[in-house]
């Protein structure tokens, strides 16, 4: 088909009307962004001769994504989360804010309000007997190697089936979610279970999109972190366990070379006894370097809707850092 109408003044005027350019009310940025978005999509429809059938099947797909709250799942799969990280890295580089452990995506499965502990916490509820015992530990330091005492280390990860508590209703509340404050040496330690990789639910709208691209929806075994301390830049990151078939083939593009960490199996009975465990375990060590900052807004995580986190929490976080 050779019909091309996008460049006509009729369509161009129509786009301005649709975007509210002739209206006094509304929000200027919303108008500009909508105009650009619609222009790009209208052009795409013209260029690819998108048929009504294709258009309405896309609308239906968006409805199912929204109906199953899967936009947050599809977003990393389409690389948006990683793209925002790439932009933030570039913004930091331009501002000469270098150093510290690299960031990587938060993912859609954080839940606020996990139980807090000093130095050590057990994260699993003991119900998941398929999970190998994991001893997860590390030291939080500044970029000069000095320990950071009292850093807030929030950790969350999946169980042996790849499911996250709260979203997976078979798990107990806050299972595999803890907040640990570092001890006098800047150390945190968690007893937990080795997580399995996560897979996008089979047949779900997100899966349909990925399949249409010939892609899979698998993530390697990984562990999420938020790390913060007064005077330091808030860090959102995660580690990917080495040796997983998806370590370097992550559908969510979260893997970074510096964040691939081995799980070392330990069978030595003295080491087992030292940790008061009943048998062999796997140790995962993740040390973190935090960059300094005076800017309070860089000391907290960016705002986004999160399970069990409301505006109030965000406001008190900000107030907490502003005091110091
Ligand atoms: C998704 C799931 C995760 O556990 C994660 O860390 C990132 C993304 C997802 O389903 O999109
Ligand atoms: Fe995850």
TrEMBL record:
Transferase found in the keyword field: no
Lineage: Bacteria, Pseudomonadati, Pseudomonadota, Gammaproteobacteria, Oceanospirillales
Intradiol ring-cleavage dioxygenases domain span: 136-164
Keywords from the named record: Aromatic hydrocarbons catabolism, Dioxygenase, Iron, Metal-binding, Oxidoreductase
Composition skew (Polar residues), residue ranges: 314-324
Keyword Iron among record annotations: yes
Cofactors that this protein relies on: Fe(3+)
The family this protein is said to belong to: Belongs to the intradiol ring-cleavage dioxygenase family.
Coiled coil: none
GO biological process: beta-ketoadipate pathway; catechol-containing compound catabolic process
NCBIfam families hit by this protein: catechol_proteo (TIGR02439)
Organism (species): Modicisalibacter xianhensis
Pathway stated in the Swiss-Prot or TrEMBL entry: Aromatic compound metabolism; beta-ketoadipate pathway; 5-oxo-4,5-dihydro-2-furylacetate from catechol: step 1/3
EC number: 1.13.11.1
Protein name (Swiss-Prot/TrEMBL): catechol 1,2-dioxygenase
GO molecular function: catechol 1,2-dioxygenase activity; ferric iron binding
Entry-linked Pfam families: Dioxygenase_C, Dioxygenase_N
